[in-house]
Design a protein that fits this description.
By secondary structure, the protein is α+β, with helices and mostly antiparallel strands. It has 2 helices and 13 strands; from the N terminus they run αβββββββββββαββ.
């Protein structure tokens, strides 16, 4: 941190015409995208310094410095207007390109397009509002499906080997029991393999 501070202090030394000043941030106006700041050379406070070349923009990249951060303020033309050129501490950053926007701050990253969104915070990654609940843990799903497969195969095996008793009447005498084996063409279910349904492009 010291090297950054020393560098911007060096930049602030007067050497003729002033084209930039090093200041500390007093206030931040996110709606207007400006800051109020005080030069470290004890000059008069600067009010409404632009955070973008065009103060009226609601697109492009804007970086909001932290309150108290060191910033470098550059001046346009005769010095009537100033714009923040650099900062050493960032509170947040906003980016808008067409229908795509993103906000990055201490809480995480929030990005949105015209059809999709992703919010990444300290605990979660939420796609499209999270209405479909959590992502599947692919190996646990595979294990559960194979448990079900084992149960089904056990039932198929028992059914295929089952022998049941029927009755048959032979001649005028009483009915007698006849053992009749089950004839089945049921085949065992095959094991599940996660690569049959895993999307390897999205991992967790």
């Amino acid at each position: 941190m010291g090297s950054i501070r020393d560098a911007i202090r060096q930049l602030a030394k007067p050497d003729g015409e002033t084209v930039a000043l090093v200041c500390t941030v007093d206030e931040i106006d996110k709606e207007a995208r400006t800051v109020d700041c005080t030069p470290i050379n004890e000059g008069a406070p600067l009010l409404g310094v632009n955070l973008q070349a065009n103060q009226g923009s609601d697109f492009g990249l804007v970086i909001y410095p932290e309150k108290g951060a060191y910033i470098v303020v550059g001046f346009v033309a005769d010095g009537a207007a100033g714009v923040v050129l650099a900062t050493d501490k960032i509170e947040s950053a906003e980016l808008v390109i067409g229908e795509t926007s993103a906000v990055l701050d201490a809480d995480g990253l929030r990005a949105e397009t015209s059809k999709m969104s992703v919010h990444i915070n300290k605990e979660d990654i939420i796609f499209n509002g999270g209405k479909l609940d959590g992502l599947v843990i692919i190996q646990k799903l595979t294990d559960k499906l194979n448990e079900l497969k084992d149960t089904v195969n056990d039932l198929i095996s028992k059914y295929n080997s089952h022998i049941h008793t029927t009755t048959a009447t032979i001649g005028p005498g009483p009915s007698v029991g006849v053992l009749s084996p089950t004839t089945s063409t049921a085949k065992p279910a095959k094991p599940f393999q996660k690569n049959d349904y895993e999307n390897t492009k999205i991992k967790q």
